[in-house]
Amino acid sequence: MNNIIYLDNNATTKTDEKVLEAMMPYFCENYGNPSSMYDFAKQPAQAIKEARGKMKDFFNAANEKEIIFTSCGTESANTAIRGVLNMNKNKRHIITTKVEHPCVLNVYKALEKQGYRVDYIGVNSQGELNLDELKNAICEDTALVSVMYANNETGVIFPIKEVVDIVKSKNSETKVFVDAVQVAGKIKIDVQDLGVDLLGVSGHKFHAPKGIGALYVNSKTIITPFVIGGHQERGLRAGTENVPYIVGIGKAAELAQDSLYFEATEVKRLRDKLEKGILKNVFNARLNTGLTNRVPNTTNIGFEYIEGELILLHLADCGICASSGSACTSGSLEPSHVLRAMNVPFTSIHGSIRMSLSRFTTESEIDYVIEKFPPIIEKLTSISPYQEELESLRLSKI
Ligand code: PLP
Fold first, then answer.
1. Judgement on whether residues 310 and 329 belong to the same structural domain of the protein
2. Per the confidence metrics, is the pTM higher than 0.70?
3. Which atom from ligand 1 is nearest to the alpha carbon of 202?
């Protein structure tokens, strides 16, 4: 589709053409099964080896054997969580955060029904993790602590190194799993420096196609397989390897590694420009996170007394793709669990919009979005039922 301004890169990204190019030979030419004995299978087997090496470098892992290819971020998380718990059946306590992605939270909800005790650590109004709560929750029985690296809705980065230090100083046997889906390609991942035991990513969030993910498992961490069958991925993830997609995530990781500086400078500059442009020109806009430590591509802005879904529809009419913090559940508009955990005021929680850039976002696209926002918000405020509140807010900003 032409004339689309895509600001929803935390939902998914476009596949980089260089990634697609690297994948192409593994569909119709080098399509052999990498486990076969004949020479024709050697090229795909070699391609997997090289991709594993690229993922090892991407994570700064010590060993290629610490990388397992999966199908997505959800599978990486499920494999890590179930794999650790199955190896430690006598321990029944888990710690996570209130703001994890549903692919993590819903696993814990299911585990609670199986008798696990789960503590959900809170965040403050800027979306920062409450480390004291974490400290107080760890006990002898804690099998696993699972904390995301950056939040998908707000982009707020959690201090993983500090989390690991706290956990290990209180119980050295507790394993730490990190859902790093929203930092891959945005900030450097260094599993050795962080000291994490397991860490998962998803290819489609950093310009590989949908349907491929990776999980780092430290060599000292033993897990049970999640998908059981053949010997692939050292028995930890059965099923014939998805060679083209594995090649794709390897290439995407290599490209992402090379563009980290660009993300930290240029993508951040455009995100900041977008944010400032909107906050300056729209009287009822507020930055939900404040200026705390965030990934460089994400902003989450609340528009007081108006409905986020309506903003999205008007943006879509202008060709702009963004997302709201709320999910539509059974006909009622349920505000996001992340923004609720941050105690975002009710006046703006329903009118919150996430915009997420990528290395393909251009300055002229950002200028266009900055120009489109004020008339859309002005139109929606004029039909809001909260006219008195809006008027006093407007006066307070003069
Ligand atoms: N974790 C986070 C933080 C995410 O944002 C997402 C996807 O939005 C996932 C996990 C799930 O990844 P996937 O869609 O590859 O299963």
1. yes
2. yes
3. 15
